């Protein structure tokens, strides 16, 4: 069965129009994805200071932070700075990447803000200082017991105090002599006066020691 001339003409017209449309589409320039500020291409990772971003459709999208040793971590991840503080990579309330102090680290162990812990000589606290954290010496350890800064403990003839100095904390420094009364009977009529004399920088076997000596005198009330 042969096709009519009109049918053949119609098919040719359809083919021509389809070919023309395809050619027109090929001739149209493809739409280019805009670059990010700084001339970065789509998908490029960009490091700016201590943070890194990714170029997505003309915008630098926050991706994470950069550690002190130039490692990239993602938002929400943490790392230990100077083995003393655990820092977390966050996006702050303004939408900017930022570092946040998460916790304190002491001898490899994590301690939360306001948490206390101890070793053989001192006990410590992880304290908040504005946006920061710091490890402070909260007191001394004496025979397994905690003694706060400036608190005193009497042992034998001497009084010891947990003292904070300019650069450190003195662990249970001798500060005074214990007041002594001869006996309960004479205590009514007499008052014992104690004089403490500190002998410093006395070297015994190449060791500098500090001693307290006690001299007791009695004053008889008339």
As laid out across the biggest beta sheet, the strand order is 1-2-3-4
User: Count the helices. How many?
Assistant: 1
> Which range does the strand content fall in?
over 45%
**Number of beta strands:** 17
Strand/helix succession? HEEEEEEEEEEEEEEEEE
Percentage of residues assigned to helices: 10-25%
Mean pLDDT over all positions: 77
Q: What is the end-to-end distance?
A: 153 Å
Shape: rod-shaped
How is the main sheet built?
A: 4 strands, antiparallel
Q: Quickly give the structural class.
A: mainly beta
Radius of gyration: 40 Å
Would you write up a description of this structure?
By secondary structure, the protein is mainly beta. Among the domains are: 60 residues, no CATH class; 44 residues, no CATH class. It has one helix and 17 strands. It has a four-stranded antiparallel sheet, with no helix packed on it. It has a four-stranded antiparallel sheet with strand order 5-6-7-8, with no helix packed on it. A four-stranded antiparallel sheet has the order 9-10-11-12, with no helix packed on it. A hairpin with a 4-residue loop joins β14 and β15. The longest helix has 23 residues. The relative contact order is 0.06.
What can be said about this structure in brief?
This protein is mainly beta and 222 residues long.
Topology:
Blueprint: H1 5-27, E1 45-48, E2 51-56, E3 59-66, E4 72-74, E5 78-81, E6 85-91, E7 97-106, E8 109-111, E9 116-118, E10 122-129, E11 132-142, E12 145-148, E13 152-155, E14 158-164, E15 169-177, E16 190-204, E17 207-220
Antiparallel strand pairs: 1-2, 2-3, 3-4, 5-6, 6-7, 7-8, 9-10, 10-11, 11-12, 13-14, 14-15, 16-17
